Amino acid sequence: METGRGIENTTLQTDYLIAGAGAVGMAFADVMLHETDADIILIDSRAKPGGHWNDAYPFVTLHQPSQFYGVSSKELSNGLRDQVGLNKGMADLASGAEVTAYFDQVMRQTFLPSGRVRWFPMSDWLGEGRFQNRLTGAVTEVTAKKVVDATWLKTSIPSRHTPNFTINGATVIPLNDLPDVATARDGFTVIGGGKTGIDACLWLLEMGVEPDDVRWIMPRDGWLLDRANAQPSMDFFEKSLGAVANQFEAITASTSIEDMFDRLEACGYFLRIDTTVRPKMFHGATISKAELAELRRIKNVVRMGRVTAIESDRIVLEQGEMPTTPGTVHVNCSASAIENEEIKPIFEGDLITPQMVRSYQPIFSAAFIAHVEATRDSEAEKNRLCGVVPLPNHDTDFIRFTSAFMLNQYNWGQDEELRDWLKENRLDGFSKLTSQVDKEDASKKAILSRIREAGFPAAVKLQSYMEQLKTSKSA
């Protein structure tokens, strides 16, 4: 392992300089290591690989099956299903501790022994081929054939998030500190309607806090995804692949954007916490129906916009205020998961900027981008195959989000080499599953036929809705 310790200025050469050893950077490096003979330098500001997982709250888990996560060459999941709890019967969800240990093993047992990966922890990326050791101040200059900016999406870290509201005399803690609350309080107020807010509420209920002692400030309700629809195993085939068919058919049959969301909910593709409140947010958060039932036990849900101030005796929101007490614990879950929504071409000369090319799967996306880099020569062709799937925020972002992925999937399906790679890559999950369907299995073949038949008209309908949104914005 090279750290540059004791060296004030160092110059190195490499094929790929990867800035960021989080899940995206690691997934990209893994494919390049196994599919090319490239030399790689990995740098990160943290002491261990794994990116934001090193700062995750203690009770965090993956929100999708572990089979979809990590690097291509090494399983994260043990193929287990949860036997108890709110994910019972479905593929296991790795804990934060499991994820960080996994990435550490990948680095120590796969990357470094290869002799083609050099790892520089505790190093800040300065740009222009330079990074600086945080402990020594030593600056290293790297001459690289290509730079991979795996920091572009800028994952927000709840423990480091500065609240966007003022605090005066109130107890406000980040999600990470919730398990450190050691004495009974007047109650808990969870601030934020996203996945971290969901996790905070579920943890409090699991720890025995009464639902009436939890107040949930939800600036926007969100459309949620049923985790049962994302199970990459043959006995969930009808549920998971059936959900894709249902999705395409619902979009195709819809007569308006609002009708589309209604149909997607009716067919089981979308869930929402309160069926009387129209969601305005879509982040792709995944949840089980058992978790949904738990969240519905919390009746004190506040929908008065974002918090602007918390004082000892009141909470001020965009649309009013409400009382609080000095003994109430306010849990700040208001940080956005991704801070950078800007998109740019993934391949630009000697710069590669990994972004999502498949909906809901940034890690698979990084691996796929690396494979395209390893196997294609033309920059135009690389960008055609790796169209960016824009990160969603508002409810209607689902439209361009889904449309962009469907175009990518169509392009991949026209390429025999990519079809074969998808079948064998463990992060894909469903390509191999569909290829293993028995020709005599009429029910499964019927689902695949429904997907093929509804795919094109669904894509056309999404395009028409995007045009409607453009017209309404320009009006």
The averaged pLDDT comes out at 93
From the spread of the alpha carbons, the general shape counts as globular
Give the number of DSSP strands: 20
Strand count, sense and barrel status of the largest sheet are: 8 strands, mixed
Uncertain segments are: 1-6
The fraction of residues in strands falls at 15-25%
Helix content: 25-40%
Distance between the termini: 58 Å
Helix/strand-derived category reads alpha/beta
Cα-based radius of gyration, to the nearest Å: 23 Å
Would you write up a description of this structure?
By secondary structure, the protein is α/β, with parallel strands linked by helices. The chain has twelve helices and 20 strands. The chain has helices spanning 23-35, 96-111, 195-206, 237-253, 257-266, 289-295, 362-375, 379-385, 397-413, 416-424, 430-435, 442-474, and strands at residues 9-19, 40-43, 117-120, 123-127, 130-133, 139-149, 166-168, 171-174, 187-191, 214-217, 222-226, 270-271, 281-287, 301-302, 307-311, 314-317, 320-323, 328-332, 347-348, 351-352. The strands form four sheets. Strands 1, 2, 3, 4, 5, 6, 19 and 20 form an eight-stranded mixed sheet that branches. The chain has a five-stranded parallel sheet with strand order 8-18-9-10-14, with helices on one face. Helix 4 (237-253) runs antiparallel to helix 5 (257-266) and helix 9 packs across helix 12 (442-474). It is globular, with a radius of gyration of 23 Å. Residues 1-6 have low confidence and may be disordered.
